[in-house]
Model the fold of this input.
Amino acid sequence: MVATKGVERASQNWESAIGGVQAKYSEGVKGATNVIENAIAAESLYAERMQAAIANQSRAKGLAKTSTEEWKRKALSKGAARISAGMTESKDKFKSGIGKVLSVIEGVQIAPKTADVAANVMGRVVPIAVALRNAKEDGQL
Done:
């Protein structure tokens, strides 16, 4: 049998690390090299592991271990506190991305609006959706 320090000691160690984890995390990020290149090179392994996870229903099994209420609680306590800073940090990326999306949309010819809801969807919504999907597949977005 493997001897461990136990749950209480592991929990205490984890808690005591909280104060310095931000600096250690930052050091690790700064020291990282070729992250994107290595991730691209590992694409076949990623696909293999994703297929295994799908076959094992790992996502569903993980989701079954929680609840909507727990998700809401964590989203409100963690996510809500982080979202403004994340959005502020991403302003330029958003502007660039939405500019590309709007450019595709602005290049689409749509039918004139009518009183027929189905005709409006087919003549106005579908062409935009198809153009956006094509742009995504072509690497424009």
The chain has a mean pLDDT of 95. The two ends are 53 Å apart (CA to CA).
